[in-house]
Write a structure and sequence with these properties.
Elements: H1 2-24, H2 58-63, H3 69-79, H4 86-91, H5 93-104, H6 109-123, H7 130-154, H8 158-161, H9 164-190, H10 199-204
Protein name: Protein TIC 20
InterPro entries: Tic20
Main location: plastid
Amino acid sequence: MAFTDMSSASSLLLSGGQNLRFRTIPMLPRLHRSCTAPRATKDASGFRFPPMTKKPRWWWRTLACLPYLLPFHQVWMYAQTAYNLHPFLELFEFYTYPFLMAIGSLPRWSLIAYFLIAYLTIVRRKEWPHFFRFHVAVGMLLEIALQVTGIVSRWMPLSWYWGKFGMHFWTTAFFLFLFTTIECIRCALVGMYADIPFFCDAAYIQIPYE
């Protein structure tokens, strides 16, 4: 009897202590979890083209095509490395030869001067239309990409550069950059922003808008 009384008294004491502990410690409110999945924003990069309220004037659209002449010249010169493209290039040699010779006759420092003047006086100046500055920046980035591709390719062994691998490489690079340049020229003529992956975002962050 004494053992049962002691066990019952200890159980009451423990239960009372637990109840007292639960009464003294405040309970934190439960956080309700939302069942809706997070939605991605419309533009993951955070850059948005300014609204086109009206179509740019025809002279701005024409001037926006001029920066793409340098990448067009560069990709045409690199295409001569792929000998399987020579029959294709000869079809347009009558139209492109005077332009290629005129660009090729310029001194070497003219390209650096063009980049500095175009970037400091056009891309970074708010006095020019945003549409025109955007296409100037994209044309410069295309030219830089072609220059980097040409420099890196010279580090390859000559058997790769002039061999079968080089033929397929320059054929792929020619059509890739050629169609990209033509698409940019088309967008400039119709008064649109060229939505080229990587290039459009890189050009947009260089232009002060506000």
